[in-house]
Amino acid sequence: MPEETETLKRYRDGQKDYRLKLRFIALLLIAGNTGTEIVAAAVGKDIRTVETWYGKYLTHGPDALNSFQYQPKRCFLSDDQLADMIAWVKKELPSDTKVICHYIREQTGIAYCQSAVAKLLKKKRTETTPSEADSGKTSVRKRTNRFY
C-alpha cells in the first residue's frame, strides 16, 4: 500500500492541469481511509464522480485517470458532402445559417440546427469578404468578415 501511495503522489505532483491533479488528491484521501462522501465534499465533486475515479483506478490503474480521454464527435456529413456544402456557401453567399440548414437537409437528408452549421463553418474557416460578395452574387445581408 505505501508504494501505491507513492505512485499516486508522483502522478499528483507531475500534473500541470489542476483538474487531473484533483483526481489523484481524491485517491490519496481515499487511500488514507477517508470516506468517499468526505472526499467528494473536500474536492468539490459529486460522490458518483469520486467513485468513478476510484473504480477506474482499481480496474485500469493510475494511467486511466492521467488524461481526459476526450474523443470529439464526428461530423454527420461525409468529407465530400462537407466540401460541396462549403463550395455552395462560397458560391451562393446565403443570407444566414437557416438557408444553409435547408440546403443541407435538401441535399443530404441530414438535419442540422443553425448553431451546428455555424460551428461547422467556423471550424472550416469559411470566410466571406465584401470583395467576394461584390464579385458575383450579392447576399441579402451585407457581410463584413465571417459567417457566424
Automatic annotation (TrEMBL):
Residues 128-138 have a biased composition (Polar residues). Residues 127-148 are annotated as: Disordered. InterPro entries: Homeodomain-like_sf. Residues 139-148 have a biased composition (Basic residues). This is Winged helix-turn helix domain-containing protein.
